[in-house]
Every structure is written in structure tokens, then in C-alpha cells.
Task: structure prediction
Amino acid sequence: MLTNLVPEFLEVLRSSDRVSAYLDYFERHASLLEPYWSNYVLPGDSPANPHFFDVIRSTVTADRADLIAMVEHTDLEDLALGAGSRAAELLGLDTSAEIVLMVGVGAANAGELVIHGKGVAFICVEHFTATRNKETHGLGLSPDLIPLWVAHEMAHVVRYTSPSSRSELRRLIDDSGGDYSYWETGRRTSLRELIVNEGLAVQAAREVSPGHPEWEYLGFGRRQYARVAELAPVISRAIEPDLSGSGLGLRLRYLSGGMSVGARTVDGHVLPERSGYYIGSQIVQYAIAEKGWKWVIRASAEEITAIAREATYPALRIAESA
Result:
């Protein structure tokens, strides 16, 4: 259930020719690293991308003192396995899944993949050294947050791969031959499903790894969390007419970063990046309370939002026929 690639990456750093050593490492683990790169780093065939070698060079020449110190003092495998076990029990894991500890190339701190039908939850440990690192783009998160993100990604894995999952995402992944694509699912999945999907992951992380500040479950800073909470009614009104729609722009607007201020401005308010995580976490709480985790993680977004609508959550007073 657990693959730890961190020791191999540290071996790359000890090589006299780090770029060649990384290419060998990439080739050995291409079945994992190619989907990681194409979904989270360079879309498409990453080795053919002209920036591929630039990213590798910056990755293997960056100062890694923070990473090395963290690895020496942290039992990464124990943190990941404990959280994975708790998440599997909570969610009723009923398919093959893998947790991967790795050093990424400055992209997401954690993520999910489905590779030939197998779910993968990966953690990029360079973001969890408790020290911001401009050279590696490390976020400076505490290692204590690794269990939170393992649970978050495991929720996605179960929703995407469980034989009894009724989610749109599982159907789209099945239609693609059992492989997950961030870009294709972003284009084809309804915003309702995407927001519910992230809301479930946020709540699963809260259940598996309790005791953190609320903003950490959402991947926010303290100020961003306060701003999203303040603007929740505005965000809800903005999302409402888009819930049945699909398109990569909607995913990026509400669930990602990088969109312009203009693209995130509604009624004179600039919506904070990734504000859909907050709304999703509010929507799903009613179904969790009423039906329990094993049902809700497999339910369709329509089933989940119907329960929330019955509970009179304002963001969902919409016509489902829209």
C-alpha cells in the first residue's frame, strides 16, 4: 500500500551527474512519474516538452538542506501508513490503492491519480519541511500535516475507483480506460461533482486527522480562510448558476489557482482562489451526518446536494433541472 521514493531521490542528489541520475530514476518509475508530470507539472507528453530538462535541472540543483533535515527527524512512512489505514477504514476502501511518498518538482503538495484502474494518493514531501524554500517552491508546511493530506487524497481514490461509486468522476475515468486526467475530467465533469468531490476530501481529512486549524484542511492561509468565510454568500451566488455546467475554466475559477483577478470578479468582489473547497465542505456535511461515510463517498453529487437542499443550505436552492 505504501511506496517511498524519497530515498531514491536522495541518491540522485548524491550522484556526480544529477541530471542523468534523475532521468534513470524517472525511467525506473515512469508508470507513476509520467502521469504525475502530465497531470500536475507539464500537460501532455512531458519528456517531449521543451521545458522538461529545465525543470529537472532546477529540481536536482536546488538547496535541499530543509528536506534532508526533515527526513532525518521524521518517520514519513509511519505518518502516511497510519493515516492511510484510518482513511481506508473510514471510507470502506474496497479496491486496490497505493500511497506514494516522493519528492516532486515544485507542483502540488499532494494529489491523486488513477493508473490503469489503480488509485494512487501521493505526497510531495518537499512541501512538508516546515521551511519555505524558494528554490524548490516548498510551501513550508509542517510534517504533521502529512496525515491530513493522505486522507484528503484517499477520499478521492475511493470516490474514483470503488466498484460501487456513483460519481461522475468514476464513470469518466472508466470511460478513459482506467486512467485519471486532471485536464479531461476538468473539461467534462460538472462543477457540482467537482465541488462535492473536494468537499468530501476536506471533511475526510478533518475526520482522519483532527485538531488542525480550519484553514489547513482547506489548504488556505489564515487570511484567505477569513476572506472566503466572509464572502461565502457571494461565492454561493456565483457558483449557483454554474453547478450543472462543465468546463476547465470553471474548475480553475473555483478550485485552482492561476486565474486572473478579472476572471474571479463577481458583483464587484474578487473571489479568493480555490473558494469552491469551502463551499463544497459545507454542502457535503449534511449527507455525511445523515448517511455516513461509506455511503456518501460513493454517492452521486446529485444525491448529496439533494440532502443539503433539504437541509435548506442556501447555496443549493437551485432548480436541479437547470
The chain has a mean pLDDT of 94. Residues 2-163 form one domain.
